[in-house]
Amino acid sequence: MLVRHIINIVSVIAGVLLISAVSFNKLPWWSLLVLVFLWLLVTAYGVANIRSGYFLKSLNSNPDAEGKKIAITFDDGPDQNTLEILKVLDKYDVKGTFFCIGKQVEKHPEILNRIIEAKHIIGNHTFSHDKLIDLYGTDRFTEEIKDADEIIEKISGKRPLLFRPPYGITNPKIARAVKKTGHAVIGWNKRSFDTTIPSEKVILRRVTKNLKSGDVILLHDTKSITVTVLEQLLLFLQRNNFTTVTIDELFSIQAYV
Domain spanning 69-251 has what CATH number? Predict the structure, then answer.
């Protein structure tokens, strides 16, 4: 966030200097367009990359984690496919963190409770996960977080403190909403792209390449391909002496109110 303020201040100063230079015919007018383009480019990177910390602080990995600990997270459930994910996790006695969508919780309350009964951790992933949710105003986005919290608590008795923005998108409105709700924002540093990549080998290679202690892996429990990838991943972790922990354990934070 400090970086964003510095960039904005530098951009304003540079803009004033450029306007002066253009006024005295020292520089061509299009030099202003170059500055605007560069500012937009940096801002777009900040919006799309949760790890940049451009708009808000997020927990993406913990390089100080003792031992070879990593966290596996799942987005967009609960879903019927989540049951298969739970079977694989149970087979290897591994705990994961599930960032759940409120409307999916309404559809599959029994699966939400299965996740919790198996001692996995539940996080908030907004109520609707609408395709245009990153365009919502602060108040509307705040309601998305609160509504998801309420339905999760109503069904499970647990009110999550962990939140992951849909698509990993961040902006000033989302930052203000999260500040109001008091959630810890959880990102990742190992993105699988299991929702778009059709190859199990490619997905597995993406999440295991240069894997190190403290890493956070992003998967989706809504995809059947993820079930197979998950088992291969857990075998890889076993062979390489990694320990899988939940997000709250990895970062030593509270998962629920």
Answer: 3.20.20.370
